[in-house]
Specification:
Shape of chain A: rod-shaped
Largest interface: A-B, 27 and 33 residues
Order of helices and strands of chain A: HHEEEEHEEHEEHEEEHEEHEHHHHH
Oligomer: heterodimer
Largest sheet of chain B: 6 strands, mixed
Number of strands of chain B: 10
CATH superfamily of chain B: P-loop containing nucleotide triphosphate hydrolases
Number of domains of chain B: 1
CATH topology of chain B: Rossmann fold
Number of helices of chain A: 12
Shape of chain B: globular
Largest sheet of chain A: 10 strands, mixed
Number of domains of chain A: 2
Helix content of chain A: 40-55%
CATH architecture of chain B: 3-Layer(aba) Sandwich
Number of strands of chain A: 14
Helix content of chain B: 25-40%
Chain lengths: 387, 238
């Protein structure tokens, strides 16, 4: 027989009261866990979708010449006789502090060429990286990943009357058209794409790069911070963030996060009040019992420990059950917030589970502190006279 | 062994027009090993005096010492320790915790003592054997009779081997036969050297004790109800 035995036996007998306290904390913990999990999963979802959006950072050489636009974006000073970036500089992007957040780095060399009697822009690209940077590309035929060949934009092919399998002459080289892009609605439709090395050879720009596109996934770091880091390692380039879409989505999540914190605080407050009121009732109901304890020689601190231990045990159970309830609710609700995506991806988070349990215990004990102090301060003689 | 001495103790409740004097100034000496009955009509102050003797109810004035130690000069925790070591309470309503088994109820005073679980259980079974209920150790209070519950309350009072037992109307809720059994049990404990102070309004049960102190209106009186205040220290046998 110890204080713990007294507490456990009492909890077993007064199940209804224990369940009431449990429910108060459980709803609070489940709500907080559910909302926080939802926000986290929505952020993960956004990150995942960022890959779909393609590049969100553009790097162009510093220039004071005329500016061109690319994909509706101002590229600063891209001109055909400008000073260009060097490949060895581009590699440095992989060394920045947030390199782990860089999903793809797509160097591109640009130059004017004549294909099938028409002048056009030749873009030398790393096709492997382009799969991440242009996930929306649909190619009839093949991308010239492992061979020399060209990929034509939809308009570039139509205007020249070229189709997959045709051979074109490009500055004295005979190259097959391996594939044709379906219409994208972007400037890609008018371009002739070739593997980076081949394009550099054709354009006489070995080792040089005109533009670099970067896909950065940035939950833990803001895009401006990534821009700053890249600018630091590429002093000869102008780094520009394409933030509009991401920022908009992130702001929406930010608002939802703030709303979640507000709701969580409110629910926890109500939960704590439920614990407080229930524990006060419990102490009043147990006045005689506390008088008996004190008559037997229990110190005030023993009574305090009994009440707080009781609250702590209930709160721990509420933390465990509340975590799983919140997690389950997130699994059910998340598809509604992510257009049916990611249902199976919500995993148990041990850190959040431990945090939920500890927070629940802390709240349970804090809310029970006043009733516990009240119990410990009961005059034993008055308590026994309540018989 | 513990001698108990009170020095003109007074207990008042309330203030102004609501001031009630429960104990008006009692000087009393009880020698270790005595079996004393505190008697009186309802409202005479006998339960108040008992709770004061048990360190539960501080006097408004006067002093109360056990073996020369003024227990109300002790800090709250020290007084709690004193109760744990020296006093066993037996309540009129048994006051067993309904969610604990008989053995667990008896072990209750040992919950705050640094003893092994086995030793605590052995002590509880020994105390239950002393009151003849060892075989019912695993039952719950609502599974035994009122007389048995009172015996469990006595077992709980003696489990930590206190030198003093304070019993408040231990036979109040029992029939005559069961009440007599409880009185025999208290007599046997007294014969083992335990000081037993019992509050009762029953002359019949008071005859089991060796000394009877009668209270009237919060003051000591002799057995025919004559107030003998202020009284010299009473030490004689009843």
């Amino acid at each position: 027989m110890t204080l713990k035995n007294i507490v456990i036996s009492n909890l077993r007998r007064r199940k209804a009261r224990a369940i009431f306290v449990l429910a108060g904390l459980l709803i609070g913990v489940a709500t907080v866990v559910g909302l926080m999990s939802l926000v986290r999963e929505m952020k993960n979802d956004i990150n995942h979708k960022l890959e779909m959006y393609g590049a969100n950072i553009l790097i162009v050489p510093k220039t004071e010449n005329l500016s061109l636009t690319y994909g509706g974006m101002s590229l600063g000073g891209v001109s055909f006789d400008m000073q260009e970036l060097h490949e060895e500089e581009v590699i440095k992007i992989k060394t920045i502090k947030n390199a782990a957040n860089v999903a793809a780095v797509g160097p591109m060399v640009l130059g004017l060429v004549t294909v099938a009697g028409r002048r056009g822009l030749l873009a030398g690209v790393d096709f492997a990286e382009m799969e991440i940077l242009r996930p929306w590309w649909n190619v009839r035929g093949e991308i010239p990943l492992h061979q020399d060949g060209i990929l034509l934009g939809a308009d570039a092919a139509r205007l020249r009357g070229l189709k997959q399998g045709d051979i074109v002459q490009l500055r004295g080289r005979a190259l097959p058209v391996t594939g044709i892009l379906e219409k994208t609605g972007s400037q890609d439709d008018g371009l002739v794409f070739a593997p980076l090395r081949l394009a550099q050879d054709i354009l006489g720009k070995t080792g040089r790069i005109s533009i670099v596109e970067v896909a950065a996934l940035c939950t833990g770091c803001p895009i401006p911070e990534m821009v700053r880091q890249i600018s630091a390692v590429l002093p000869s380039g102008t780094v520009t963030a394409i933030q509009q879409v991401v920022k908009g989505r992130m702001e929406t999540i930010g608002h939802f996060q703030k709303f979640s914190y507000g709701v969580s605080t409110l629910v926890l407050l109500v939960g704590c009040l439920m614990v407080l009121v229930t524990m006060m009732g419990s102490v009043r109901e147990r006045t005689v019992e506390i008088g008996i304890f004190r008559a037997m020689g229990f110190r005030k601190s023993h009574v305090l420990r009994i009440i707080l231990l009781e609250a702590g045990i209930i709160a721990a159970v509420a933390g465990i059950v509340g975590y799983f309830l919140g997690w389950g609710a997130t699994r059910l609700l998340f598809p509604l917030f992510s257009e049916g995506q990611g249902h199976g991806t919500i995993s148990l988070d041990p850190v959040m589970a431990v945090a939920a349990i500890l927070a629940s215990i802390m709240l349970g004990i804090t809310a029970s502190l006043y009733p516990a102090l009240m119990a410990s301060q009961l005059d034993p003689n008055e308590a026994l006279r309540a018989l | 062994m513990r001698d108990i001495n009170t020095e003109n103790i007074v207990k008042r409740y309330g203030t102004g027009a609501n001031l009630v004097t429960a104990i008006g100034g009692v000087t009393l000496g009880i020698t270790a090993g005595e079996f004393v009955a505190i008697m009186g009509e309802s409202g005479s102050g006998k339960s108040t005096l008992l709770s004061m003797l048990g360190g539960l109810n501080a006097p408004t004035s006067g002093s109360l010492s056990v073996d020369g130690v003024d227990i109300y000069a002790l800090a709250s925790d020290e007084r709690a320790d004193f109760r744990q070591r020296s006093i066993g309470f037996v309540f009129q309503n048994f006051n067993l915790l309904p969610y604990l088994t008989i053995a667990e109820n008896v072990m209750l005073p040992l919950a705050i003592v640094g003893m092994s679980k086995k030793k605590k259980l052995t002590a509880a079974i020994d105390a239950l054997a002393r009151v003849g209920l060892a075989e019912k150790a695993a039952r719950l209070p609502n599974q035994i009779s009122g007389g048995e519950q009172e015996r469990v309350a006595i077992a709980r009072a003696i489990v930590n081997k206190p030198p003093i037992i304070l019993a408040d109307e231990p036979t109040g809720n029992l029939d005559t036969h069961t009440g007599a059994e409880i009185m025999k049990l208290l007599t046997a404990l007294n014969q083992d050297g335990i000081t037993v102070i019992m509050v009762t309004h029953s002359n019949e049960y008071a005859l089991y004790t060796r000394r009877r102190v009668k209270l009237a209106d919060g003051l000591l009186a002799d057995e025919d109800g004559e107030v003998c205040f202020p009284v010299a220290r009473a030490t004689g046998q009843g």
